[in-house]
Design a protein that fits this description.
18 strands; Chloramphenicol Acetyltransferase; 19 helices; 548 residues; alpha+beta; globular; 7-stranded mixed beta sheet
Amino acid sequence: MTVESHKTNSMETAHQLHYCCPHLMLRWKRNKNMHVLAILRAQLHVSRCSRSLELAQESLPLALSHTKSTTHLLSIYLINEQNRSRSIRTLIGYRHLTVAAMAPLHKAKVLEQCRISPYPGSTARPSIPLTFFDLVFFRFHPVQRLLFYESPQSKSHFLHSELPKLKHSLALTLHHFYPLAGSLTRSCGGQKPEILCSDDDFVWLNAAVSEGDFYELSGSHAQDVRRFHSLVPSLHSSGDRQAVLAIQATIFPNAGVVVGTTLHHAVADGSTYASFMKTWASIHRFGDQAADLAGRLPFYDRSVIKDSKGLEGIFLTDLQLLADDQSLEAWDLDGRSDIVRATFTFRRDQLDGLRQQVASKTSAQCSPYAAACGFVWAGLVHARGGTSKKKEHFGFVTGCRARLDPPIPSNYFGNCLGICCVEAKQSELIGCDGPLIAADAIWKVIKSLEEGAFKDAENWIRNVYKYASVGALTVAGSPKLGMYEVDFGWGRPRKVEVISIERTGALSLAESREEKGGIEVGLALPSHEMEEFVSFFVNGLSGLSLPR
């Protein structure tokens, strides 16, 4: 479509916007130029009729090729459009990637490295032995997250006012979560690892500054994963000891703050991590006497974990047999250069629609979790191609604190997760009912947990290695963690990202920031697979019959 034809149709588009999307009409009046009009036309087509996706795609290349400030333009659009379609947001973002690819990679510059020790206390800090739950994750890649906060402040204000508060509140928080300042160690002679704790423990806190575009980085559109690498810290190691937590706070002057964390998975699961972050944020806002601290402070008694099946010995043996190198190595984020990441959001009504389709196909009343994961699993199999009868694999974890007999406290510190494995034929997943078949398969495994979470538990580690070897899709995070509740006083996070999924091939899950009951899914894929998945996601949801 030419610029001239857009000019010819501009008045028609303005009238359409006025009657169909008055919120977009206001933007047209304020921005009477061709690239803004093209974007508004794309949004209009999706707002009026989802089957007009082809027209929306037709409008986008013009929008992306007739402006030198595409990044700024799309950032404003993606941020402020309250009634936007999430599907077209992702599509616009993917098209935008072709323009943004030539932009420089702004690496954050570390200005200060601080050793933050737990605030002194009168009680001892005993070392913490790992349980069989922890051993399952001993060789996992560290979990790396970013929390983006919109907080327009200067670099000077951040360094001289906000950073000292972050240091102090972190020290107070580590007083309660002291193992996170310790180090993971493996003794000689095949003894099990432990978290070694002493009065000299500390956590590295980096203070950094970035000249990158905060609003673009915190968007949902597809982006080069390398743009995020300098925002997360690495874990230090020395000999047979490995730090278990590192933190970085990066200021984007006059835009926002990004808090990045790197956590060794053998030390804590998502529930413990979320409790730590919420406690830190609460202390930062209200001090050590914050009213909501009592329910989050960790429970350390390892005696509540019963090992009647001898899983600890089995897992220690498996770790030795399945690993070529037992040393604790430093991990990095160096990966392929063609990987992009994007976030896809399922609204609550979309999840309800998917669940209704699953019920009509299989009679199963699956959960929103199963519906979302099933849709994404089928979409990724479709994106990667293939029509064979070989099996596809999907792995996820289930919380076991409430499943143990007797149940253990919800604030138990450490890992308490079971491994769940799902299989389905590739030929079934790429069919028109693929998302429904995938969701049903996941739901059946979830329902089987009612008979006990420890069925086949002796094979958990072997299954992890098996699934890794066949490139299974796995899950990082959970909508139940409530990461959008982590408020340091800057408001809720604008965006939460699990950066480490690019190393594990996992999808990340979080609750929707914008709607209760929605689910955010993060993906990191080769660019050609991302393009295929975007098409699958948009087309799959556009044809969905939504409940009223």
